């Protein structure tokens, strides 16, 4: 832990919020179409219908808000999962939750020609829930019960299964490939503000719920025996965490597709900076998750300009070395 005093923790938190706001502003300004701060302000104060103003209002601002919301949701979901499972590799991507949500959405598009936005949201939550229950059930089999290693293996198996099913559907229905390919890579490009508005109530519940149970997370992180001794209702807390993860991960996939590694990288960085107190870890993880996805999205615009790289590819580039480091360090380093 780099920061110990409360005053320095507040300074770190405020600094992270300022950085997030600056990156949101940068996301609105920078890209293939040349704009400026003045153009962005005029788009709302002195709108003239120009191409630049249309792009800022309909593309750049929604993109910045969606990237921030999705990044925060994935980071908080990863933190909750790592606390619940005592597994440093736990995240919606690694445990197959993103893949499950993505498979159900793709199945609806390719098999039933579903295009309704509200239907996407419900289907993404359904897929996330099914994947979560599968991983938890498989990981609980055996004499030793639920262990971090078994959860990781179960998550990898479920993720591979749903990914294979998704690819199989796209092979059967090649006409749907172009429609969903960019979405499957994970992207905030071209998403409308209405898309975020449709899932905001759900991920908002996830954000608030995660903050409200931070005290119980601190007790749970001491170990289940200690938590029971302190009167914590373990089953209720675990069920609450599971529901919050499904809301956060399912909502994120519904908006931006399956974006990986944010839920792994950010919780470890946050705990390294500020310690293990979830009253700080949960909100700071959310802010830093937004920072990471905003920065990755801005970088994705310039990597192969004028073409754009899906932001899910950028997070994979950033997160893969970190994942290897955590895996090599082992499960005793939490």
From TrEMBL:
Bilayer topology term: Multi-pass membrane protein
Pfam families in the cross-refs: FecCD
Gene Ontology MF term list: transmembrane transporter activity
Localisation per UniProt entry: Cell membrane
UniProt-listed Gene3D superfamilies: ABC transporter involved in vitamin B12 uptake, BtuC (1.10.3470.10)
PANTHER family xrefs: FERRIC ENTEROBACTIN TRANSPORT SYSTEM PERMEASE PROTEIN, SIDEROPHORE TRANSPORT SYSTEM PERMEASE PROTEIN YFIZ-RELATED
Protein name: Iron ABC transporter
């Amino acid at each position: 832990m780099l920061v110990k005093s409360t005053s320095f923790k507040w300074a770190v938190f405020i600094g992270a919020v300022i950085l997030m706001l600056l990156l949101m502003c940068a996301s609105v300004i920078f890209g293939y179409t040349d704009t400026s701060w003045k153009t962005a302000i005029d788009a709302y104060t002195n709108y003239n219908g120009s191409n630049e103003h249309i792009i800022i209002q309909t593309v750049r601002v929604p993109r910045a808000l969606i990237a921030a919301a999705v990044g925060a949701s994935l980071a908080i979901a990863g933190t909750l999962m790592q606390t619940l499972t005592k597994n440093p590799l736990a995240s919606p991507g690694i445990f197959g939750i993103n893949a499950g949500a993505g498979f159900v959405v793709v199945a609806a598009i390719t098999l039933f020609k579903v295009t309704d936005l509200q239907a996407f949201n419900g289907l993404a939550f359904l897929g996330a829930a099914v994947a979560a229950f599968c991983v938890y059930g498989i990981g609980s089999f055996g004499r030793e019960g639920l262990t971090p290693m078994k959860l990781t293996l179960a998550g990898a198996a479920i993720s591979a299964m749903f990914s294979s099913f998704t690819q199989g559907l796209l092979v059967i229905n090649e006409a749907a490939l172009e429609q969903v390919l960019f979405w499957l890579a994970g992207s905030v490009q071209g998403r409308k503000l209405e898309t975020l508005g449709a899932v905001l109530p759900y991920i908002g519940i996830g954000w608030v719920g995660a903050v409200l149970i931070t005290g119980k997370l601190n007790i749970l992180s001491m170990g289940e025996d200690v938590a029971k001794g302190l009167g914590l209702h373990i089953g209720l807390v675990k069920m609450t965490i599971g529901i919050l993860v499904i809301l956060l991960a399912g909502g994120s996939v519904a908006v931006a597709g399956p974006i990986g590694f944010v839920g792994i990288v950010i919780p470890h960085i946050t705990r390294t900076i500020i310690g293990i107190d979830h009253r700080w870890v949960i909100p700071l993880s959310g802010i830093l998750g937004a920072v990471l996805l905003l920065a990755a999205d801005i970088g994705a615009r310039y990597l192969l300009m004028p073409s754009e790289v899906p932001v899910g590819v950028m997070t994979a580039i950033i997160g893969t070395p970190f994942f290897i480091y955590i895996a090599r360090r082992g499960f005793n380093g939490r």
